[in-house]
C-alpha cells in the first residue's frame, strides 16, 4: 500500500540546517528514506534524467548531481551510460547510503554556501528534490551557473509550493 504523501511534509516545517540534518539522520536509519521513495512512487529522478536525455549529451559529459541524497539520480544516469558523475549533499548520512560505483566523487557540501569548485567545471548539473521547503534557496542557482561550463546544462526541479514564495520566479 502506498503511503499518504502528506506523511513526508514534516520535513517542510523545519527551519534550521541542524533540524534538517537531524531529520535526515533519522530518516536514513534502516534505509527508510529509500524505502519511502519507493512507497511514495517518487519519480522525479527518472523524469528529470528523461528530460536530460533529450539533449543528446556525450556519455563522458562531466555531471554534478547537486543534492544527490542517496544517489537516486546517479543511479538513473548510470542506467543510460553516463559515468563521469560527482555527487554532493548536505547530509553525510544520505551520502553513506549511496551505492558504490555510482559517483566518481561524493562530498558533503552545503549548496546554500559558496562552492569550492572552479568556474566552468561541469557540463551538466542535475539538482533534483533540493529546491524545496527549507532546503536550497534560489541564490544557490548563481553558484550552480558559475560552475557550469559555457553552453552547459542545469537540469533541476523546484517544489511548486516555493516557486513564488522563495523567489524562484524572479531568479529564473
Question: Outline, from the CA principal axes?
Answer: globular
CATH top-level class: Alpha Beta
Strand content: 15-25%
Q: What is the CA-CA span between the terminal residues? A: 38 Å
Tally the helices: 7
Number of strands: 5
CATH superfamily: Vaccinia Virus protein VP39
Give the tally of structural domains. Answer: 1
Mean pLDDT: 86
Explain what the structure shows.
The protein has 172 residues and is an alpha/beta fold. It has a single domain (44-171), classed as Rossmann fold (3-Layer(aba) Sandwich). It has 7 helices and 5 strands. Strands 3-2-1-4-5 form a 5-stranded parallel beta sheet. Helix 3 (44-53) packs across helix 4 (72-79). The radius of gyration is 15 Å and the shape is globular.
Features:
30% helix, five-stranded parallel β-sheet, 172 residues, alpha/beta, single chain, 7 helices, Rossmann fold, disordered N terminus
Task: Summarize the helices and strands and which ones pair or pack.
Layout lengths: L16 H11 L4 H8 L4 H10 L9 E4 L5 H8 L5 E5 L2 H4 L9 E4 L13 E10 L8 H7 L1 E11 L9 H4 L1
Parallel strand pairs: 1-2, 1-4, 2-3, 4-5
Protein name: Methyltransferase type 11 domain-containing protein
Pfam family, one: Methyltransf_11
InterPro entries: Methyltransf_11, SAM-dependent_MTases_sf
